[in-house]
Amino acid sequence: MALRIALRQKYVFLGLLSSSGNHGRVATVLVSQMRNNATSPNIKVDFNQSTGVAVLSMQSPPVNSLSLDLLTELCINLEKLEMDRACRGLIITSNQPKVFSAGLDILEMYGKSPERCGEFWRAVQEMWLKMYGSNMVTIAAINGSSPAGGCLLSLTCDYRIMVDNPRYSIGLNETLLGIVAPFWFKETMANTVGHRNTEMALELGLLYSPSEALKIGLVDQLVPQDQLLTTATETMKKWLAIPDHARQITKSMMRKPTLDKLTSNREADIQNFVSFITKDSIQKSLRMYLEMLKKRKA
Ligand code: CO8
């Protein structure tokens, strides 16, 4: 609890800095102080000054589920990297075995007050806005399963490389939990794999094997586990060879309509989420899904 409050205080501070439009000396001094490689409880960042590339590893056991704490840390680290002009590329991966991210932490949506659900959803929105709208080149190095919010996180990146292991899966499986992926999840997916693939994937809650995901363009490349980070690093070089301003303007042109839709509807989207997720019938579906996860393990 204390950690979350501290993280949020820092986050508000950083948020104020970036929204003030002050990219001058104060920000530069602060950023240079923060540029060192950082480890917070659930996130490790290795920033290589000579290449301008940061590797951000999620390390929240057991499955990197996106809790309010993990999302808050993720946003703080993204903000720091985004503000650091020396950082041009971000590789996002997992330090947990077999799982990239299990998606949103279901326990954050089950049995919680409307206020708490609203706070959680704002953090989910913030993570998506920061990732999807990032000026950095972003590559997801997907070293394990990546359902729902984990898939969304991968989809925000410019390029996705997944370990070729048929035991791993990726997709927006929300309907399997009895819940509905919001419009910005849907659009991020449709912008990547097209309308028809998205319609089927979302309605059926499909989880794709790596080779199936490659086939529909949900991931861009498959590699053996031991080649994941070297491939991501090599791919990054190709993307960084493009002049930043031209690539950034092009990226913004492709993504801005979707980003704007959420930015101008944030409060309504939070209200929708809170009233949907706190319904008795939805809470019941989540309880059954949690029980199913436990039974499957036993
Ligand atoms: N949230 C919370 N806890 C989780 C989650 C999760 N998303 N996923 C797994 N866990 C827990 C398990 O219950 C288990 O807990 P415990 O040890 O107490 O029994 C522990 O993590 C380990 O899980 P597993 O034993 O299942 O680990 P495996 O390595 O065998 O499998 C998987 C890893 C494949 C990730 C598997 O855990 C899994 O399939 N998890 C469920 C993933 C999922 O369906 N996520 C959907 C989340 S919803 C979402 O992201 C978008 C919601 C949008 C909301 C829109 C509403 C309007």
User: Given the structure, what is the number of helices?
Assistant: 12
Bound molecules: octanoyl-coenzyme A
Q: What is the general shape?
A: globular
Beta-strand percent range:
5-15%
Oligomeric status:
single chain
* Estimated helix fraction: 40-55%
Order of strands side by side in the largest beta sheet? 1-2-3-4-5-7-9
Distance between the terminal alpha carbons, to the nearest Å?
A: 31 Å
Mean pLDDT: 90
The biggest sheet, with number of strands, parallel, antiparallel or mixed sense and barrel status, is: 7 strands, mixed
Rg over alpha carbons:
18 Å
Describe what you observe in this structure.
With 298 residues, this protein is α/β, with parallel strands linked by helices. It has 12 helices and 9 strands. The chain has helices spanning 2-19, 25-34, 68-83, 114-132, 149-155, 183-193, 195-204, 210-216, 228-240, 244-263, 266-277, 280-297; strands at residues 38-40, 43-48, 53-58, 89-94, 137-142, 146-147, 159-163, 170-171, 221-223. α1 (2-19) runs parallel beside α3 (68-83), α3 (68-83) packs parallel to α4 (114-132) and α6 runs antiparallel to α10 (244-263). It is globular, with a radius of gyration of 18 Å. It binds octanoyl-coenzyme A. The site of octanoyl-coenzyme A has 28 residues, from α11 and α12.
Provide tags for this entry.
298 residues, 9 strands, globular, binds octanoyl-coenzyme A
